Amino acid sequence: MAKLILSMDGLVLKEISLTKERTTIGRKPHNDIQIDNLAISGEHAVIVTILNDSFLEDLGSTNGTCVNGQQVSKHFLQNGDVIELGKYRLKYVNEVPQQAGAGDFEKTMILRPDMLRKAAEPVLDRPAAPDIAPPPAPAPAAPAAPAPSTPTAEATGLPLGAIQILNGANAGRSLELVKTLTTLGKPGVQVAVISRRPQGYFITHVEGSSFPVLNGKSLDAQAHPLSSHDIIELAGVKMEFFLKG
Fold this sequence. Notes:
The chain is mostly beta strands. The protein has strands at residues 3-8, 11-17, 22-26, 33-34, 45-50, 53-58, 65-67, 70-72, 74-76, 82-85, 88-93, 117-118, 161-165, 173-176, 181-186, 190-197, 200-207, 213-214, 217-218, 224-225, 230-234, 237-243.
C-alpha cells in the first residue's frame, strides 16, 4: 500500500497511508492531511489513488506545489518522489510495481476539442493523436510470453467504453476510453477521472467546488461505477457514457 511520510527540516512528523481514492492536502481542518501553516493554501492539493497508482494535482494553491524541486500542476507519483509544500516535505513511498508506461503520465489527458472525433467516423480512420493511444494491435501467437504492457479493455474481458458529447460546439463527437485513467474537465473549474478497472468503469471527482452530476444526481468524493448510457454533466458539458459492443 502506498504511503506518504510527512517531515519538516528533516524531522519525520507522521506517516499517512493512501487508503482513500481521494486524499486532500491543505491548511483547513477538513483536509485528510492538514498542515497548519500560512504557506499552505486552505485546499492546496489532492492525491488520487487508483489501484496501485497515484497522481498529484495542485488545486490552484497560492504558493504552488513542487515535486523533486520542480513546480507541477499535475504529476504521476513514483516511488521516492518528494512533494514540497513550503518547509514541509511529503515523501511518496510505493514499493508495489506500477503499470508499464505510467511514468510518462500518458494515461491521463484533459478533454480538448482536438481530442474528440465525430461519432460517425470509423475508429481506424482516426489519425493517431499524441495524447490518446490507439488501441493496441493483437499480439501475434508465439510460444514465448508477450512482454508486459498495460492491459486493454478487450484483454481484461471488459467492453471498450466511450463518451459522446451531447451539447455545445462539440456535440456529436465521441472519445474512446482506451487508457487506464482518463481525466476530463476544465482545470480550475471542474475535473474528474474515469478509471478502467477489471470490474468496469468508474468516475471520481478530482477538482472543483461542485461535484459532477450523474443521471441528474450530484456525486460525492467517492468513485462511482458507470453503466452504459449514463449521462454525465461536467464543467458545463453533458456527455453520455456507453460500452461498445
